[in-house]
Design a protein that fits this description.
Blueprint (H helix, E strand, L loop, with lengths): L15 H5 L20 H13 L6 H17 L6 H26 L7 H18 L4 H26 L3 H20 L4 E3 L5 H7 L1 E2 L2 H28 L7 H25 L2 E2 H19 L1 H11 L1 H6 L4 H27 L1 E3 L7 H11 L12 H19 L4 H28 L4
Antiparallel strand pairs: 1-4, 2-3
Helix pairs in contact: 3-16, 4-10, 4-11, 4-14, 4-15, 4-16, 5-6, 5-7, 5-14, 6-7, 6-14, 8-14, 9-10, 11-12, 12-14, 15-16, 15-17
């Protein structure tokens, strides 16, 4: 005896009652990693442990490094944590940090740019010669210098993306060529002094002395952060994908606000808000938006994470590569301008010394992976803060340059080791 609904080959009679039942409502997408948030504090602890096991360390190592460095130097000499030293430190890291931002973009592709030091010196020389020696309008000379950096990056990107020359070779050759061009631009004088009233000097040395300036900047920054978090949460909630609950957004905003207003308070204890630091932070916010919230930014991460997969997805890999090196050249020019404003001159030593190593170290120490596909422009700020703090602390203690180089190199090696171990953990967890 055949029961209703049993298989009967092609003449099987459909079950009308089942066909008439309404389709179940689509369930919202749920990320299993976010379910722990429903467990309260215990859930966050569980999530934190999972991230550690899978190698998703984020900015945690560098934040811990900054705390340790400041604690050690502060205990050895109280002058390190003085408002004056911390304010000076916030200005001194800007030039290196600007160049490191460009390195972050290159590292996201899993490549390297060894020419940024020479490019920064070349662009500083271009500005100084055009403005000081030839009388060109200082704003026009500034734009020409920055455009020169972008052109250099575009040329190097062309040889890498279109011709197929490895980035290491292209930028190593560029390091020599652009340094030679800088010497040619400077001519027999070798050094061009930049007046203190020049726009370049003002960009570095200008300080908003009114206490309200620092607090207003902190308030605007925190407000924009809160707005962005709420907007992102709403957008994800409408799309029925996991989103941050309001309590977490409030907590994150309180933490960011505490850091921002504490920084403003410290700066006001000395002279006020440096223009250089303000411009650096604004640039980081803009480029962070480009990387994380735009189609172009997603393409950069895609090419760095899996170039073949990106190509099959229809992404123009040559365009992404050329644009990234153009950004690196532009940021090298901007950083070189700030460094020239810091010493108020452009000379044959501009862009030399340990600048190249410091900017690469800043990007890597800040958390950007050498293997590509993982990082953030905020790495430039955090890494530059680590490098600058080490140098500032050792200068206060009178440590020789030889020892400073060795310690900085050790910190860079430690950062690379952490990056390698993190990547290995992610592979073991199936996330890389």
């Amino acid at each position: 005896m055949r029961r209703r609904g049993d298989s009967d080959g092609p003449n099987r009679i459909p079950d009308d009652s089942a066909a008439q039942q309404p389709a179940p409502e689509a369930m919202p997408a749920v990320d299993s990693r976010l379910i722990v948030r429903e467990e309260g504090v215990r859930g966050y602890v569980t999530e934190f442990r999972r991230k550690l096991r899978s190698g998703e360390l984020g900015s945690l190592p560098v934040v811990i490094a900054v705390i340790i460095i400041w604690t050690v130097f502060g205990s050895l000499d109280s002058a390190f944590l003085s408002a004056q030293n911390l304010s000076d430190l916030s200005q001194q890291i800007v030039g290196t940090g600007m160049i490191a931002v460009g390195i972050v973009f290159v590292l996201l592709l899993g490549e390297i740019d060894l020419s940024v030091g020479s490019v920064s010196g070349l662009c500083a020389a271009i500005f100084a010669v055009l403005n000081v020696l030839n009388g060109m309008n200082q704003w026009l000379a500034l734009l020409v210098a920055i455009a020169g950096g972008a052109a250099v990056g575009l040329i190097q990107g062309f040889f890498f993306a279109k011709v197929g020359v490895p980035a290491f070779v292209v930028t190593l050759a560029g390091n020599l060529a652009w340094n030679g061009l800088m010497l040619q631009v400077l001519g027999s004088t070798g050094t061009v002094n930049i007046p203190s009233e020049s726009v370049v000097a003002e960009l570095y040395s200008k300080i908003f002395e009114s206490p309200a300036a620092a607090y207003v900047a902190a308030g605007v920054g925190v407000g924009l952060f809160l707005f962005a978090q709420l907007l992102d949460s709403r957008r994800r909630r409408v799309a029925r994908v996991p989103y941050r609950p309001l309590a977490e957004i409030v907590l994150r905003t309180v933490v960011i606000g505490a850091i921002a207003f504490a920084t403003a308070y410290i700066l006001n204890q000395y002279q006020g808000l440096p223009l250089a630091l303000l411009l650096f932070l604004i640039l980081l916010v803009v480029l962070d938006f480009v990387l994380r919230r735009t189609r172009y930014g997603r393409q950069v991460f895609a090419v760095g994470g899996n170039i073949e997969g990106a190509r099959r997805a229809g992404i123009s890999v040559p365009f992404v590569r050329m644009s990234v090196f153009t950004i690196a050249g532009t940021m090298a020019a901007v950083g070189g301008i700030f460094l020239a404003g810091q010493i108020q001159s452009a000379s044959q030593t501009s862009g030399g010394g340990n600048l190249l190593m410091n900017v690469i170290a800043a990007a890597v120490i800040g958390g950007t992976s050498l293997f590509g596909g993982r990082g953030s422009v905020w790495s430039a700020l955090l890494g530059a803060l680590v490098i600058g703090s080490i140098q500032s602390g050792m200068n206060i203690m009178g440590v020789s340059n030889a020892v400073q180089f060795m310690i900085t190199g050790s910190v860079l090696l430690a950062a690379v080791v952490v990056d390698s171990l993190s990547r290995r953990s992610q592979k073991a967890a199936g996330r890389a």
